[in-house]
Design goal:
5 helices; 4 strands; single chain; disordered C terminus
């Protein structure tokens, strides 16, 4: 992950997951330069087939697609989001740490663990009865 994403980037997140929604809201509030386009994949009108990615794959892990069409998943998606804030010392540090050879596989493992347990976390108030909440199932 040495190439900076082409901005703005589109962040595909699960708005039905309270932890995920809170994290993305945190980034939304900090995005004063319009570098993030946020798409809630749990919304009934979200059409994953437009991106060639299954709904299950979108639900399994965070996805970011930049303007050049590069897809970032999981920890790489967070790295791409952090690049949207070049003046942030914290995000710069996190972006550097997560790419270190010993940290990268550990971060991926931790993220996969989180992805598996996400289904047990509280949901947002929105109803998941429309079939979009296949949380934690690899696609």
């Amino acid at each position: 992950m040495t190439i900076t994403p082409s901005f703005p980037i589109t962040v595909y997140f699960d708005g039905s997951c309270s932890v995920c929604a809170a994290e993305i809201e945190h980034y939304r509030r900090q995005d004063h330069n319009g570098r993030l386009i946020l798409v809630d994949i749990s919304a009934p009108d979200f059409k994953p087939e437009l991106y060639g990615i299954s709904r299950q794959a979108f639900m399994y892990e965070l996805h970011v697609i930049d303007q050049a069409g590069v897809v970032y998943r999981g920890t790489e998606a967070f790295w791409a989001i952090w690049q949207a804030f070049p003046n942030s010392t914290l995000y710069g540090l996190l972006g550097t740490i997560i790419t270190l050879p010993l940290v990268k596989p550990l971060a991926r493992l931790c993220y996969k663990g989180f992805a598996q347990m996400r289904r047990f976390l509280p949901k947002t108030a929105r109803d998941c009865g429309n079939g979009n909440c296949n949380i934690g199932k690899r696609g």
